[in-house]
Design a protein that fits this description.
The complex is a heterodimer of chains A (about 350) and B (about 375). Chain A has about 350 residues and is mainly alpha-helical. Chain A is built from 15 helices and no strands. In chain B, strands 1-2 form a two-stranded antiparallel sheet. In chain B, strands 3-4 form a two-stranded antiparallel sheet. Chain B is mainly alpha-helical and about 375 residues long. Classes of the chains: A mainly alpha (about 350), B mainly alpha (about 375).
């Protein structure tokens, strides 16, 4: 590590590398580890679970009873957990195939879900149905709100059965398409020599932009900020919790943070941390950036560990602790978005809200 | 041709006369050739020969229209009389009194077959604004109303198809007036061709007819005469803003700077071949800026679908729709009218009903643009 640091320093003396020493870092190992062992593995795990979700759905519809319903709920939860490892990677095939839009848009439009079921006529891929499908809609269909299991099972007439089947099929199809595209072509693009570097079209440039946007918008705001009322003058918005019907939003958040850790550390291989260490990245106050990010991950995890599901109850009974999670995640946003991106030479190109 | 011959004879005789007066047989008189300047600065006898105040007036008028339409996005009732007056510059509708007294207007310069379309948009926008002001109606498929952009607390007023009126009207008129006037009026032979007077100085002015017509085309671009070569700045307006916005990947600002400067220089130098070549550079760079900006907003729309953010999605799609519409005005376009129609009426939803778009239909639009404009391909996802 020391020798790489020295190399990086010496490259600073050349004319090529005016802005910083990020150009000295060889991205080959990073991109291949992230591409193969982190991202592709995450999508593979998701596709495996969505296939099981498909078969559990078939089993439930073949014999509708408490046992098959419970098995389907368990499988839905397992699928949602594996999804949490995929959220930072909404670029390339995931964006082109609308993965998030088919899996995890919430809150959902209950009126439209019910009117689709009643009419039996809908095209789930169109924009009008963007908030009538995915995991939260499955949660609604399988858990309901304050409904007995017997009532839930009884509610499945042929139209409801068809809707359940169609939503699950779309989740499974899209997940497999994204996994296969990554495996068969996009992994090669992502790790290719041409995608090295840190400009907007590069793999690192794209990854750092997309992960920041997802973390800020979906992890910090979507999972905690909006439900706790950060965007609504402090008035909580329970329907905006991720697992509003199934009541395991905190558990999903914990796994999502773990997913971000996988990306950051690269698990046993090269990760974003190695990039930062090799260029001896520091924060604006000259402390080691990797140490700060690692410490901030712990703070986020500690804050989450003090809160229990259901998140709706936690917001009602221990709002301060929930707000602490938000604050600690905001700390991570600053480290990722300002310090990490600038140390790497990545320009953050997305904006929170379009200016014009 | 007649005028050119006359000009040549007139020019030659002047040269002859002057060389007689010089009484210096060693030096042949060479017509001075102006070098291409770095800013849009051209002079005659030490005074500027550049003038395009009428274009600036129209840019200012559209800016006021856009601003007024913004009241509709904010949930206020807007008036069709005010908007139609702004369109035609009647009954002193503008806050800027100089515009009210200007003889210029937008409507008469709008691509004629589209005037009805824009007036209908104005009428619809007003109706929707009245409803939202009274009932805070939320838009949905088949229902005009308002949608929040993300969690920003800012709203867009959209039609029953999801069209954001402000964008469709403002960006739409950028094509139907500004590009249409550049393409189909000022860069045509009737305004800047060989038959146009480039000798006589207009009465009370400091320019020839041809110089002035070229400057009027430049004026519709919206760039300041200083032509800051790199980044967009606050002085870049309308098409200048978007051509600078696409500069990093497409070089559209430097392309237009080059086209306008070399063309105007060629006019001063009476070099019609260079002037005609410059026109082609201008046509292709405006077209690429429109196509690239449409792609930029298609990419945004795909992101917003994955965000489940209807407000920003409708905003991005409305921008994309208007920039694709703008492609139709060029007589030299690379894309066909039927391809434009298929983007607008199929890829952007059935008959442009945004509620019926899907990620795959937007990708179809994207592929069509990238296949038509190969310059978009290397950075198709980042533009």
């Amino acid at each position: 590590m020391l020798s790489i640091g020295l190399l990086a320093l010496s490259s600073c003396n050349t004319d090529i590398d005016i802005g910083g020493n990020f150009n000295s870092y060889d991205q080959t190992a990073l991109l291949s580890n992230l591409g193969e062992n982190i991202i592709l593995t995450a999508y593979e795990g998701l596709a495996e679970e969505t296939a099981l979700l498909q078969s559990s759905t078939e089993a439930f519809l073949t014999a509708k009873n408490e046992v098959t319903l419970e098995a389907l709920k368990v499988q839905l939860k397992a699928t949602r957990k594996t999804w949490q490892y995929c959220t930072p990677y909404n670029f390339g095939p995931a964006a082109d195939l609308g993965l998030v839009s088919n899996l995890n848009i919430y809150p959902i439009d209950l009126l439209r879900v019910e009117s689709n079921i009643t009419s039996g006529s809908y095209d789930l891929t169109t924009l009008a149905n963007n908030d009538t499908k995915g995991f939260q809609t499955l949660g609604y269909l399988l858990y309901g709100k304050d409904q007995s299991t017997a009532d839930i099972i009884a509610s499945f007439d042929s139209n409801r059965e068809k809707y359940l089947t169609d939503i699950v099929a779309l989740i499974d199809e899209t997940s497999h398409s994204v996994f296969n595209t990554w495996k068969n072509s996009y992994l090669a693009t992502f790790t290719s020599a041409g995608a090295n570097g840190v400009d907007a079209g590069s793999s690192v440039g794209q990854l750092v932009n997309t992960m920041n946007r997802d973390f800020e918008r979906n992890t910090r705001d979507g999972k905690i900020g909006i439900p706790v009322g950060i965007r609504s003058l402090g008035t909580p918005f329970p329907e905006a919790t991720e697992a509003f019907f199934a009541d395991y939003s905190i558990e999903l958040l914990e796994i999502n943070i773990e997913g971000y850790e996988h990306l950051y550390t690269g698990k046993t291989g090269e990760g974003l941390d190695d990039f930062l260490m090799s260029i001896s990245a520091v924060t604006s106050t000259q402390s080691g950036l990797d140490e700060d990010i690692t410490a901030q991950f712990s703070k986020v995890q500690n804050a989450i560990s003090l809160v229990n599901d259901p998140l709706i109850d936690a917001i009602a009974n221990q709002k301060t602790q929930v707000e602490t999670i938000f604050a600690e995640m905001q700390g991570l946003v600053i480290l990722f978005k300002t310090d990490m991106a600038s140390s790497m030479g990545v320009i953050i190109t997305y904006q929170d809200t379009d200016g014009d | 041709m007649k005028k050119l011959n006359f000009a040549l004879i007139f020019g030659l005789s002047l040269a002859f006369l002057s060389s007689c007066n010089e009484d210096d047989e060693d030096n042949e008189v060479i017509t001075p050739v102006l070098e291409v300047p770095s800013t849009y600065s051209f002079t005659r006898n030490g005074e500027t020969s550049v003038s395009f105040s009428g274009q600036t007036d129209r840019l200012d008028m559209l800016a006021e229209m856009k601003s007024y339409l913004g009241n509709g996005n904010s949930g206020e009732e807007i008036s069709s009389q005010t908007l139609l007056d702004m369109f035609a510059n009647e009954n002193s509708p503008f806050a800027n009194a100089e515009l009210n007294s200007s003889t210029k207007q937008l409507e008469s310069k709008t691509f004629a077959p589209d005037i009805t379309f824009f007036k209908a948009q104005i009428t619809e926008a007003v109706t929707a604004s009245v409803d939202v002001a009274a009932n805070q109606t939320v838009a949905d498929q088949g229902q005009s109303g308002r949608l929040e952009r993300g969690t920003s607390g800012k709203f867009v007023l959209v039609s029953e198809k999801g069209w954001e009126y402000q964008q469709i009207i403002e960006k739409g008129l950028m094509g139907a007036v500004f590009l249409n006037q550049i393409y189909n009026v000022y860069l045509t032979d009737s305004k800047t061709g060989d038959d146009v007077d480039n000798i006589a100085i207009a009465e009370g002015k400091n320019y020839t007819a041809m110089e002035h017509h070229w400057d009027e085309a430049f004026g519709y671009w919206g760039a300041p005469e200083s032509l800051s070569a790199s980044l967009p700045d606050e002085n870049d307006r309308f098409w200048a803003k978007y051509s600078y916005g696409r500069e990093a990947y497409l070089g559209t600002a430097t392309g237009l700077i080059d086209g306008f400067l070399t063309g105007r220089t060629a006019i001063v130098n009476n070099n019609s071949a260079k002037r005609e070549a410059a026109k082609l550079v201008i046509y292709s760079n405006f077209e690429l800026a429109a196509a690239g900006t449409a792609l930029h907003y298609i990419n945004d729309a795909i992101v917003h679908i994955n965000d489940g953010d209807f407000g920003n999605l409708m905003h991005s799609l409305s921008e994309a729709y208007a920039f694709v519409m703008a492609l139709k005005y060029s007589p030299n376009k690379s894309i066909t009218q039927s391809e434009i129609d298929s983007i607008l009426n199929t890829h952007f939803g059935t008959e442009g009903d945004f509620w019926t778009v899907s990620v795959s239909s937007l990708n179809d639009a994207k592929d069509l643009l990238v296949n038509t404009y190969s310059e978009l391909a290397p950075n198709a996802d980042e533009i």
